[in-house]
């Protein structure tokens, strides 16, 4: 029997991530090849014509799984009945800007959209915030939508996770699909800590620790970390636009694993409401290693944290605490 369609909201759908993301969702990349979807696309009035153009292209693409498209500039219409909300709408960082610079523009959007989601989304709607500052926008959304369970509100650090897998795969000249269990700790910003201490590579003679295979701690503790931390800025410099296809693909990975589960023995990185695990600050959205089962994420517990890592976990946690204060000062 055919499944009931799932309603997926994409805000900022006329933007460049939106343009890469909506065809992926309509093809089943996010929710599975047997899962029909109805796309809800929201943008602001100046982008209404472009949004309608995206809708026309979705119709023209004749995606078999796509059972309907709502394209609107009305936030209530956009949020009504949605089961998954991917929040991409906002102002992207331009060359030379830090994420803090886009804070005041974006947190007020997330405050107002929190109300609409809380009142009109389907019960148990899963929310993924992509727009920067992603962790703090997600926190604001959570704070102003108190009836949505905190565990349903997450932010995207899967792009950073995938970037870390990509760097290790290039360094070792192995398939990226054979590398697993890197971790992104903390903020989706240049303070994030990409950690390979528990990462492994599948080799013909079994699973081996990344550190043993790379045999270059100076690279792993230096250039590897800064490359992943600065990758967003490097893409902006090269494209004069921020990452889009990789961000859209990571958003699909994030929701797919959350809804359908992570493979046995594998974890992924997600920005989730911190309970203080690993002595991260509680009450911010912090990226942790998580496993997912039956539509719920769980923070992987008990991983050893050495002194080098401890400092980096604390540094990015400190930045998130400061961003939280700054966000509230922008809203007052
Ligand atoms: P973009 O400017 O191309 O698109 C953003 C869209 O949002 C535009 O169409 C704009 O009209 C729309 N928008 C603005 N205010 C809105 C509102 N109130 N409601 C609905 N839509 C609104 O930007 P982009 O390149 O698609 O990037 C989107 C966001 O994602 C940016 O904040 C960017 O920094 C962020 N980003 C995050 C990650 C991540 O890994 N977390 C990666 C890449 C980009
Ligand atoms: C990215 O990581 O590519 C985005 O968050 C863009 C940025 O501002 O760095």
TrEMBL record:
Domain (Lactate/malate dehydrogenase N-terminal): residue spans on this chain: 6-153
Annotated residues for binding of NAD(+): 12-18, 43, 106, 130-132
Residues that, per the record, bind substrate: 93, 99, 132, 163
Entry annotated with the keyword Oxidoreductase: yes
Domain Lactate/malate dehydrogenase C-terminal as annotated: residue spans: 157-327
Enzyme class: oxidoreductase
Top-rank lineage group of the source organism: Eukaryota
Active site (record annotation): 188 (proton acceptor)
Signal peptide (from-to): none
Keywords, sorted A to Z: NAD, Oxidoreductase, Tricarboxylic acid cycle
Keyword Lipoprotein assigned: no
UniProt family annotation: Belongs to the LDH/MDH superfamily. MDH type 2 family.
Protein name per its UniProtKB record: Malate dehydrogenase
Lineage of origin: Eukaryota, Viridiplantae, Streptophyta, Embryophyta, Tracheophyta
């Amino acid at each position: 029997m055919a499944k009931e369609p799932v309603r997926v909201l994409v805000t900022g759908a006329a933007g460049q991530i939106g343009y890469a993301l909506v065809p992926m969702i309509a093809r089943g990349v996010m929710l599975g090849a047997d899962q029909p979807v109805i796309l809800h696309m929201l943008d602001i009035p100046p982008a209404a014509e472009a949004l309608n153009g995206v809708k026309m292209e979705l119709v023209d693409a004749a995606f078999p799984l796509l059972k309907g498209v709502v394209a609107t500039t009305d936030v209530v219409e956009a949020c009504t009945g949605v089961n998954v909300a991917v929040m991409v709408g906002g102002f992207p960082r331009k060359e030379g800007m830090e994420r803090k610079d886009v804070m005041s523009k974006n947190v007020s959007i997330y405050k107002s959209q929190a109300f609409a989601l809380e009142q009109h989304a389907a019960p148990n709607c899963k929310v993924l915030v992509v727009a920067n500052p992603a962790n703090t926008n997600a926190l604001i959304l959570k704070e102003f939508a108190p009836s949505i369970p905190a565990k349903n509100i997450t932010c995207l650090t899967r792009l950073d996770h995938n970037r870390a897998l990509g760097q290790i795969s290039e360094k070792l000249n192995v398939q990226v699909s054979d590398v697993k269990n890197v971790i992104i700790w903390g903020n989706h910003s240049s303070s994030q800590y990409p950690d390979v201490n528990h990462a492994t590579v599948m080799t013909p003679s079994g699973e081996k620790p990344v550190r043993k295979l790379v045999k270059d701690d100076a690279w792993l503790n230096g250039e590897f970390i800064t490359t992943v931390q600065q990758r967003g800025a490097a893409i902006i410099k090269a494209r004069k636009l921020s990452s889009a296809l990789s961000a859209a693909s990571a958003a699909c990975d994030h929701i797919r694993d959350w809804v359908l589960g992570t493979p046995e023995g594998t974890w992924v990185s997600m920005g989730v409401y911190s309970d203080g695990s690993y002595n991260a600050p509680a009450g911010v959205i912090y990226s942790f290693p998580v496993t997912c089962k039956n539509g719920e994420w769980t923070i992987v517990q008990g991983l050893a944290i050495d002194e080098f890592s401890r400092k980096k976990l604390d540094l990015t946690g400190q930045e998130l605490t400061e961003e939280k204060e700054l966000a509230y000062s922008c809203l007052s």
